[in-house]
Amino acid sequence: MSDHSKTTGRGTLAVHAGVEPDPSTGAIMTPVYMTSTYVQEGVGNHKGYEYSRTHNPTRTALESAFAALEHGAHGLAFASGLAAMDTVLKTLKPGDEVISTNDLYGGSYRLFTTVFAHYGIVFHFVNLSDLDALRSALNAQTRLVWVETPTNPMMQITDIAAVADAVRGSGARVVVDNTFASPMLQNPLNLGADMVMHSATKYLGGHSDVVMGCLVTSDEHWADQLRTLQNSCGAVPGPMDCFLVLRGLKTLHLRMQRHCDNGARIAHHLTQHPAIAKVHWPGFPSHPGHEVAARQMHGFGGMVSFTLRDNNLDMAKKLVATTRLFTLAESLGGVESLIGHPATMTHASIPKEVREKTGVTDGLIRLSVGVEDVEDLIDDLNQALASATGIHG
Ligand SMILES: *Cc1c(COP(=O)(O)O)cnc(C)c1O
Fold it and tell me: Which residue, 92, 132, 218, 263, is the most exposed by fewest CB within 10 angstroms?
């Protein structure tokens, strides 16, 4: 089952990708190979596994699943999404430049500006929905264009194919952080990107029980370089974590369908609510990225954010503390619904003036809509909005 052609359905891939029956027992699920090392019959005479930093069979199965799901040739798993990013950035040299979006995940922004900026890498943050802004930042030193779409938390959309076209021939490569969409809703390599990155902590794992990252590329030279760094630096996930994500992947298509359905219902409900000024969700025809999202995605996902009419910090704090089903927590993409306040949580490391320019104001609330019954989720938001703002939906 490992040779899945590009025409295999996404749901079939989610169930089967990467997994072969265990050769010694026939176990249908990949065993958790809890081992650090592998017995050699003689010097250099081994079965392809020498030491678990370098390779572990449970990780190998997961890495091939990642590659298959993103239609790439090479998949790599890391101890976290940021460890995956860190590895990509370590392929750069001082003086190299990176262009990224001005509405970037807070942890990515921190990695770029507080870690890699010190090693002489230069970062430019532009609105990647604006191709002229991208072209004017692009120069002979640009090595990477780091795209996130939809963005976190403003749900801005970048046209991946248009960015890949604009960058082609410049010597820079396009990486897409595909965490928000998951491979079920968007496949950047098919749109011309050179690499896909995921925080597998989110939808891929899907059950809020593991932290992991992944990279997928079809560029063999780059993949070799990344494998060397993966082994040299050692930020690899353990076998139990790999097993958990392998299991999570099997229901990815079902979960994403429900996240999309629930997300759409809630986005529409919230636009009718008098306490809310604006709902940020790419499924609305009025969303500036709607046309591109409809073209490059297979669904609009379960992430919805909204701005309170009174852009008020105390009201926002009260709201996120008053929901009962939507749990106040960082992270996203699990089966349970979460609510967050980006300005004080995920985006607290981004300076106020910087975050407010992209809309991350004190009255912005982010929802990761889970797979519960949507009527219960709507009731929960209604009661919390009424108690925080005094306004009934
Ligand atoms: C969570 C997240 C990351 C970082 O991943 P970790 O697994 O937390 O290290 C990167 N990008 C996006 C969009 C994320 O949501």
Answer: 132
